[in-house]
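Final report, closing paragraph on structural work. Over the funding period we assembled a curated collection of sequence-structure pairs, and we close with a single example.
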Amino acid sequence: MNLDSLTIAEARRALDVKEYSALELTDAYLDEISKRDGEIHAYLEVWEKSAREEAKAADALIAKGESKPLTGIPLAFKDNILIEGHTASAGSKILENYKASYDATVISKLKEHNAVFLGRTNCDEFALGSSTENSAYGPTKNPHDLSRVPGGTSGGSTAAVAANMALGGLGSDTGGSIRQPSSLCGVVGMKPTYGSVSRYGLIAAASSLDQIGSIGKTVADARSIFEGIRGHDKHDSTSLPDSFFNEKRTVKKVIGVPRAFLKEGSDADVLAEFEKTLENLQSTGYEIRDVELPNVPYSLAVYYIINPAEVSTNLARFDGIRYGLSVPAGDIQSVYSKTRGAGFGPETRRRILVGTFVLSAGYADAYYRKARAVRELIRDDFKRAFESVDAIAMPTSPTPAFKIGEKSDDPLAMYAADIFTVPVNLAGVPAISVPSGMVPREGKNLPVGFQIIAPHGGEDALFTVGEDVEKGRG
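Its predicted structure, as stored:
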């Protein structure tokens, strides 16, 4: 059992032919967590006892020949996805002692598969950040260089997969929060079409942007997890009908590249790796075309109006009265202010304040409603581009992993790390980040990702192109 090269597909084969048991596989990952997580801090809590019990139950199903694609597969879960009976703190102090009273729909689906739940992973508080430095429980470190960030906000899950401390994982992607850390950690991360995977049981940050997605070592791994969790859910009003995905889309191998946009703050060697990947695809029969996305350069500005506006609304429920932390005080207003002051970290407070401002009387027209109008223009840009190409390619991140603390005092520099990922969430289209190479920094080789974006419901194009990127790397 070589965890470095082990994939979900290989584990499925080996489990089904009894080369090793699900319990032995789970123990291998628990051992790796014990050895490595002290320095990486990917996990906030490891569920050793229940994971072994789940592995034994999976072995019993495998013995009967009743296994499903994810039966016995050890997975890691971002701390903002509810699992009944387990703490779900969203990386915050205000929910430090909150235990989930029900399962998120994605968890129910994985329990039907008899997957193994290894533990909950670290994340930026309420999924707000780009580095997993905003967790109330300390930062996660990048397995490739412990002095650097893993990316955010799903940095715990991506670091766990990259460090062989889970075979796959779930994260949530609000503005790149699966794809950006997957790029920085050298794994595959997928954000599905908005509405294709239920958000029921995901602690909300920005509801029109949030999407649960999958993380794996390979495109096939990410696909396997996605197929296990996708589908219509009556509990989620934004959930797409299953019929939406019945349409078969032919992938004609035409990729669009918005070159004018790619010069926005990208490191030269990151762009060089991106171009090398495009050349590899071209050599295998892909046509590469330049495309225009005239409104996409406004994406960051639009995102950092819409995201805080929705965050301020969603986080209003954490008031010290209904659930979570409550700081006693002499009157109700003081309970609110003291609880939220003690329970929310600096980035969360910053976004609540910005969001409250852009929604306030006198400013909503000037900021929020204009941002929503430009969001529609960005959606239209993608729609027009997809009339002539199957997919659009960009780097996932303009840089490799940066140093812990490097951007902590400069929120705008931190926000710029999401420049290539936020347009996807604004448009609601699916995208995947696939490792495409390494770039040197201070004596270490750091991974960079190649981002593939497809039209609504075009996940098959992501998998086709993504697997061809993997073949090009050998």
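The chain has 16 helices and eleven strands. Residues 357 and 363 are 7 Å apart (CA to CA). We thank the funder for supporting this effort.
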